[in-house]
Design goal:
This protein is an alpha/beta fold and 165 residues long. The protein has two helices and eight strands, in the order αββββββββα.
């Protein structure tokens, strides 16, 4: 076989491999296209703690991606994280829907999950999702458990002490 032909095909396969790696990197980083801005509407949700949630994270309902996190910022007056969501117009959520920060996969990627409620009125552009649940923080749970447990142990010791001593 001709040496130039072999070099050509090797170059084609290397180029295809590079394109595939770029595509995978964009998918993992949530930079793939999810529709244009005019195909979405904005919702807002306030959270006590958003954990490691980042802009461009997926917004899912029933496991289906229905939008992306547009931005996250801190509200100094309310002392809460404000998360703005770009939801695809084909998906509508009622006013008593619940938003929560969830974790998926082995790598612990966080996303925002929306559970629809039962209200007949739908959320409109720039409206606020009133019911939210922040990220699960393992350190806080462990801390609460340790301090509550040690407090309970001291109280139990006081209760079991012999009153005649």
């Amino acid at each position: 076989m001709n040496r130039k032909l072999i070099d050509f095909w090797v170059g084609v396969f290397v180029l295809l491999g590079a394109v595939a790696l770029v595509f995978l990197a964009l998918q993992v980083g949530n930079f793939g296209s999810s529709g244009s801005a005019k195909d979405t509407y904005r919702l807002v949700a306030n959270f006590e703690n958003v954990g490691q949630l980042k802009p461009r994270a997926a917004v899912k309902t029933s496991g289906v991606v229905v939008g992306r996190v547009a931005s996250i910022h801190y509200d100094n007056k309310e002392h809460r994280a404000v998360v703005e969501l770009d939801i695809q117009k084909e998906f509508q959520f009622d006013k008593d829907s619940t938003a929560q920060v969830l974790t998926a996969g082995v790598l612990g990627e966080q996303y925002l999950g929306i559970e629809p409620g039962g209200n007949s009125q739908m959320l409109k552009n720039n409206e606020v999702i009133m019911q939210t649940q922040g990220a699960f923080v393992l350190e806080k749970l462990i801390s609460d458990f340790i301090f509550n447990k040690s407090g309970a142990s001291a109280n139990d010791a006081e209760k079991t002490k012999d009153p005649l001593e």
